[in-house]
Amino acid sequence: MTSAAISAPLVLTVSGLYLLTLFAIAAFADRRAAQGRSVIGNAWIYTLSLGVYCTAWTYFGSVGRAAAGGVWFLPIYLGPMLAMLVAWIVLRKMIRIAQSHRITSIADFIASRYGKSPALAALATVIAVVGVVPYIALQLKAVSAGYQILTHGPGPQEEALVWWRDGALMVALALAAFAILFGTRHLDSAERHEGMVAAIAFESVVKLVAFLAAGAFVTWGLFGGMADIWARAKELPGLTDLLRIDRGAGGAGFPYAEWFGMTLLAMFSVLLLPRQFQMMVVECVDERHVKRAAWAFPAYLLAINIFVLPIALGGLVLFSPGAMDPETFVLSLPLSQGATALALFAYLGGLSAATGMLIVETVAISTMVCNDLVMPALLRQPWFGARTGGDLTRLLLNIRRAAIVGVLLLGYLYFQIAGDAYALVSIGLISFAAVAQFAPALLGGIYWRGGTLRGAFAGMAGGFLVWIWTLMLPSVAKSGWISDGFLLHGPFGIGWLAPESLFGLTALDPLSHSLFWSLLVNISLYAGLSLARAPSAREASQALLFVEVFAQDSGQGREQAPIFWRGRARLEDLTGLAARLLGPEQSRRFFEDYARETRAPSVAEIRADARLVDRVERRLAGVVGSASARVLISKAAQESPLGIEDVMEIVGEASEVRAYARALEKAGAELREANERLKSLDQMKDDFMSSVTHELRTPLTSIRALSELMLDAPDMEEPEREEFLGIIVSESERLGRLVNQVLDLAKIESGHAEWRIVEMDLRKLVSDAGRSTAELFHQKNAELILTLPEGPRLLRADPDRLTQVMVNLLSNAAKFMPETGGRAEAVLREEPGWFVVEIKDNGPGVPLADQATIFEKFRQAGDALTRPPGTGLGLPISREIVERFGGSMGLVSQPGQGSCFSFRLPVGREEAARNDSNS
Amino acid sequence: MTAKVLIADDEPNIVVSLEFMMKRAGYQVLIARDGPSALEAIRRERPRLVLLDGTMPGMTGFDVCAAARADPELGGMKIVMLTAKGRDADIARGVGAGADAYVTKPFSTRDLVKMVQEMLA
Fold first, then answer.
1. A694: containing domain
2. Who wins on pLDDT, A489 or A870?
3. A701 and B55: CB-CB below 8 Å?
């Protein structure tokens, strides 16, 4: 096996160029954002930015984990996939809350929910820092190890480097510069860091492609595909076990508890790690992006994990046992085969995984440290008065910058001290378990109004202490810095306090064990203390704003949330405070916008009421965090403390306002609907008038034109003159018929028609109508057959009107009789509850397209040439009449095979008929 | 040389009057009774002028007019739209479709003949 190495200057140059590319991308995105043409406003960028979850730990550690435990690396990715399934519900709520309150970090989120407590914010920050610094160290270690492998060739590493040749330090400093440039651009942390997000999305692409490239090289370059790796791994003793799913990190049998614990842990961490919260919640541009991320992010995780097992097995097969650290297989496999370019690319992938995490994590942590640790301390200083002093923006930015450098250096220091103490994977898991302590307070806080500050604080503190005792200290002890005697025998020989087997619980692995006890303590304290004492007014009000966030904000940007503040404030105090924290320019713009929104004539005339105070506080919260903003406001204004009754009262008022707004909205909708109806009626009237006009003008046109022509042509031939006069007469008749029918229809429709309702015999009516129209059929050489039942069929109706219907239908049938062999039939029959009259003919039938509309006004079927004279109103009038007596009309027709018009009338509808009678 | 005039209308009695009028004025008369056959007659016979009813079955006169105007080979043909719909919107539609004149029914036979004669002069 050849062993290759790449020259250090080349690796440094490539790394440097890569980092420069990141700077360029971030600078480009920030410039676009400043021009109002954001590049991060789409769901794909959002999804890729979530890829910051995959750190160097994923990149190198997963392979190591797979080499040691087979599929045991999977739960860390199953968890996020499961979490993303419910993301649409939980994450969307978190995003909505964070945007409405201008939340800057996860510590801020939790503290804000529990009455904007500075103490809780500080505790959360401490947990995050303690939990995450080792994780940062891990990233630096990965970069450093990768660099060493590339420059010295694969194999065990020997001497430590002098500090100025230390790649890890260089990377840490370069990233500090990046985070300072693109993470502290605006003071308002609730605003997005577009450049940073764009750079992270780019890094997600680089690491995915690099890992896939390395995986493909191993799978198809070094082996003959996945099946080949599998087969060759099976031949090796000791590797067979790896391929079995029912094998945990150590024991035999399927490790249900471990899988469950790991998956749960990863589910929490994808939401709760400071960098995840930063990317998912704080930097989210549009909550609808979550919808795509919910499937696309799991797909990303799947893709980046496809080659983990092949690389792990390939490394185990190719390298002799113990010769190579499995965590470096991604680099050492290509390098050992002389594929230096690929090795360099794979190294860049690892670098991108590490830098992405480092950038976002330090920005998130530095915001927390600045807002929730440093600011509260400053606020306690007498010289840091809210009413006095100048612009604080520069000071705040510098605190944040210092925090960034501090966090990275802390990580570096940790790496220097503890660098070789742990396997990469265990550090990651320890961090996960620390941030899992946020879960009860955070998830409980957005769904349970009863959660209190005492409960949240005690739960988080208790869980954190258990975490220290059961996970943190043992890992320190295992590194050999303190005696590990207490691990086995407990402190002072008290066996049931032994960190990895509390109360004698030995059935679980150390991680599941720690998770079990810490979350048990956490949840018990949280729920127990919350239930024991009712929340204070401030907690109750924040609880309401969080839990009911969707009720207050209908998503249309209208602020209907109740405002929980009472007291007196002076406009000058608020403008002064805002100017100090936002800077004069931002502050001026803020108050000008507010003046416009409240329709105040000028900034000086803004009313310093609760609404303004609330708005200023929210705006400041985006800069210094909700807890510090609260303290600042309380110093700047004279507040009246709120009691729980006040809170209830404000909620009541707000819900009244909401109910009123809803009622208004409903009334508005009704008005709009009525207006629409009127409009459509108007349109119908308009159409009707237009149709009537058209129908009247058509015969008039013939009459006028022919009369004029006869007048102008005295020399006209006699037959022609007679033809013209005949047309004039028939068109006049058509005109008269039309006028009568329009009037008739108008009368029926408006309810002014006169109805003469008597008991009548429908059988006699049908037979009489047949007799009176017999002549029409006779003219067409057609026959009309009547098929009637025996004896009278009595009902109450208007016989004249029903005769009108019968004559209309029969004369229609007669009109459409074919030249020869015409045949029509009128049938009266009974169905249960109904009399049915059918008029069948063997005419041309009604075209399918016309069947649906034939009972509407002016819808004669066919064109003028084939259609016999008619007004187009006969059928609509018939339908009105039949419907008047509770019946309906129907048509069944196959074009070319005749048609069957029918109407049905209810039997024994005397009551209704009598009531309708107005004669 | 007598000019060809196409009468396109689905009302037989109106066609009778228009035909009489145009023949008396000395034109050669062609007749179509629906939209598609009107368009076909226009393409085949190349009339100098078309009296086109707005509401015909198959294809409205407005559509026939627009189709004829879209055909570059039919340049120079005059189109007079006749319609019984008198709303402003209908007139605008007729003009928009490219008619040379728009006549509302019922019309004056004398004015119509005069207009046709002027157009074909």
1. 647-747
2. A489
3. no
Q: Determine whether the interchain pair A701/B107 forms a contact, defined as Cβ–Cβ distance below 8 Å.
A: yes
In whole angstroms, what separates CA A708 from the centre of its chain?
73
Amino acid at B52: L
Structure tokens at A682: 């108007």
Number of domains in chain A: 4
Q: Are residues A252 and A219 in the same domain?
A: yes
| A vs B: CB pairs below 8 A | 80
- For B27-51, how does the pLDDT look when each residue is reduced to its tens digit (9 = 90+)? 999 999 988 999 999 999 999 999 9
Is residue A171 within 8 Å of A314, Cβ to Cβ? no
Here the CATH number for the domain that contains residue A669 is: 1.10.287.130
Rounded Cα–Cα distance for residues A269 and A435 (Å): 7
Decide: A452 and A530 in contact? Cβ < 8 Å.
yes
Among A747, A772, A796, the domain boundary falls at A747
Rounded to 10 deg, the angle between the A106-113 and A626-636 helix axes is 50
Is A690 a domain residue? yes
pLDDT grade for A548, boundaries at 50, 70 and 90: confident
Same domain as A627, residue A651: no
φ/ψ region of A835 (left if φ > 0, alpha if ψ in -120 to 50, else beta) reads beta
Write the burial class of residue A914 (CB in 10 Å: 0-12 exposed, 13-18 middle, 19+ buried): exposed
Of B14, B34, B85, which is closest to A690 when you measure between CB atoms? Answer: B85
Cα–chain-centroid distance for residue A441?
Answer: 24
Report whether pLDDT(A190) > 70. no
Looking at residue A847, which CATH number applies to its domain? Answer: 3.30.565.10
Looking at the structure, tell me whether residues A323 and A234 fall in a common domain: yes
Q: CA triplet A374, A440, A277: central angle to 5 degrees?
A: 55
* A445 belongs to a structural domain: no
Tokens for A613, please give them.
Answer: 């105070």
Q: What is the CA radius of gyration of chain A?
A: 43
**Do A31 and A176 belong together in one domain?**
yes
Q: Choose from A685, A688, A694, A730 for mutation: most chain B CBs within 10 A.
A: A694
Residue contact A709–B21, C-beta within 8 A: yes
Within 13 A of A18's CA, how many CA atoms are on the CB side? 26
Nearest to A701 among B21, B106, B110 (CB): B106
Residue A388 has a pLDDT of 53
Enumerate residues 6+ apart whose C-beta is below 8 A from A32. Answer: A38, A39, A194
Give the pLDDT confidence score for residue A863 in this predicted structure: 43
The kind and range of the H/E element at A529 are: helix A510-532
A29 and A177 co-located in one domain: yes
Q: Alpha helix locations (H) across A184-307?
A: 194-216, 226-235, 256-272, 274-277, 289-305
Residue-range definition of the domain harbouring residue B95: 4-120
Residue A484 included in any domain: no
Q: Please, are residues A333 and A318 in contact by the beta-carbon 8 Å criterion?
A: yes
In this structure, the strands spanning A899-906 and A823-831 are: unpaired
- Mean pLDDT for the stretch of residues A373-379: 84
- ipTM over the 0.85 cut-off: yes
Q: Which of B9, B11, B15, B17 to mutate to test the interface with A (most CBs of A within 10 A)?
A: B17
Model confidence at A706, pLDDT cuts 50, 70, 90, reads: very high
Average of pLDDT values for A30-46? 82
Q: Identify whether A463 is part of a domain.
A: no
Residues A683 and A605 in one domain: no
Residues 6+ positions from A596 with CB-CB distance below 8 Å:
none
Chain B nearest C-alpha distance from A861 (Å) = 10
Q: Do A94 and A212 fall into the same domain?
A: yes
Q: What is the CATH number of the domain that holds B88?
A: 3.40.50.2300
Could you tell me where the beta strands, DSSP code E, fall in A305-451?
Answer: none
Q: Which of A613, A592, A610, A609 is nearest to A601 (CA)?
A: A592
Whole-Å CA distances, A532 to A21, A446, A904: 56, 19, 73
Mean pLDDT of A568-584: 81
